[in-house]
Amino acid sequence: MSFLSRIFGSPLFGKRRDDRAQVRPLWHRIVEIAREKQWYADCGVADTVPGRFDAITLVLSLVLLRMEGEDALIEPSVRLTEIFVEDMDGQLRESGVGDVVVGKHIGKLMSVLGGRLGAYREALGQDEAAMVEAVTRNVSLAESGDPARVARQAMVLSGQLAALSAEDVLAARIAR
User: Fold this and answer.
1) What are the tens digits of pLDDT across the range 101-146?
2) What is the reported pLDDT for 19?
3) 141 pairs with which residues across the strands?
4) Helix, strand, or coil (residue 48)
5) Using the 8-state DSSP alphabet, how is residue 154 labeled?
6) Is residue 174 within 8 Å of 164, Cβ to Cβ?
7) Within a domain: 5
8) Distance CA 6, CA 40 (A)
9) What is the C-alpha separation between 13 and 19, in angstroms, rounded?
10) Contact at 8 Å (CB) between 113 and 57?
């Protein structure tokens, strides 16, 4: 712990409040869901760094889409997106991306997330064929990958999320 963080984290100055604490369990649950065997073994999402990123952004997008439909979840959705950025920043640095270009990479990742949010929002408002098309464009698949299976699983998860109360979403009570 650095000298400054000890001083500014001391009772004299008060502890810094973690504005993201409320949604951290939800972020962890999103990552858990994105790592479930069904995405990789059953649906054929590529078990690679890009494939895992695609699975996380798929699940995160579905959660954010659920959150955008309810006023009480708008502000927490911003915090959830901040955690995504924080996590991706850490992952990039861990993989050797230097300080000079990390911001540029984060900008690209945010652009990707924004594009996927739009694609999944539009597809979920249509039918399974539209979702298959969105998955085909946005999810890295293994040779045996089946975008229709990924799309169906995503639609099931979207339905499960839609049935949850705002309180259950924030508490990460997403059964699978």
Assistant:
1) 656 666 777 778 899 999 999 999 999 999 999 999 999 999 999 9
2) 80
3) 45
4) coil
5) H
6) yes
7) no
8) 43
9) 17
10) yes
The DSSP secondary-structure symbol of 21 reads: G
57 assigned to some structural domain: yes
- Is residue 34, in this structure, part of any structural domain at all? yes
HEC assignment per residue over 67-99: HHCCHHHHHHHHHHHHHHHHHHHHHHHHCCCCH
113 token code pair: 């997330």
pLDDT at 101 (0 to 100):
60
Q: What is the dihedral of CA 132, 117, 62, 106, to 10 degrees?
A: 120
Query: What range defines the domain where residue 96 resides?
Result: 19-170
* Tally of domains within the chain: 1
Torsion 90-92-95-99 (CA) sign: negative
Q: How many of the other CB atoms lie within 10 Å of CB of 156? A: 11
Q: Is residue 7 part of a domain?
A: no
C-alpha–C-alpha distance, residues 48 and 141, integer Å: 9
Low-confidence ranges of the chain (pLDDT < 70): 1-17, 89-106
